[in-house]
Write a structure and sequence with these properties.
Layout lengths: L12 E5 L2 E5 L4 H30 L4 H11 L7 H13 L4 H23 L3 H24 L3 H30 L3
Antiparallel strand pairs: 1-2
Helix pairs in contact: 1-4, 2-3, 4-5, 5-6
Amino acid sequence: MHGMPASVVHPMSATTTQDRLIVRHHSHAAGLRTVAFLEALKGVAALLLAYLISHAIRHDYDFEYAAERLLGMFHISLSHHWAQHVLNFADKISDWHPGTILGLAAAYAGLRFAESYGLWRQRAWAEWLAIISGCIYLPVEVERLVRHPNAFHWTILVINIGVVLYIAWVRWDEIKAARALGR
């Protein structure tokens, strides 16, 4: 099987990793690459948002005024308790240090990019990382959904659960394949 193209070994695909042959019963490449793309997109979005916020802080941008305008654009009353939380949060953004924002975003993006690379290359460590990092967000997403049930929170929760279950299925499938080969 070494040196044979994956199409010859169909329906099983084979890849080598440092003298170790990994046989996959199902091709998970397309699904893993889709998740990898989403993870990379989250990293890019974090960096872009951090840059925009730090740039606005340096130029003394009025975040509270911007939040008021945004809430008004969506016809959300400023007296609503949720709107007050948004305004309070927006008012505090100016107190943040731009270097801290960029540093945290860089760390988060680095993790997302590493996970994306590993998933793209179908590495087991990246699959475990995706499962763990996806599960870390679940309690927060459930709490948000309980406090403020809406379509957005439902969508985020369902997507995250779907990704975690898919990656867990990929890991399980690969573990079963390795056991079948006696590894």
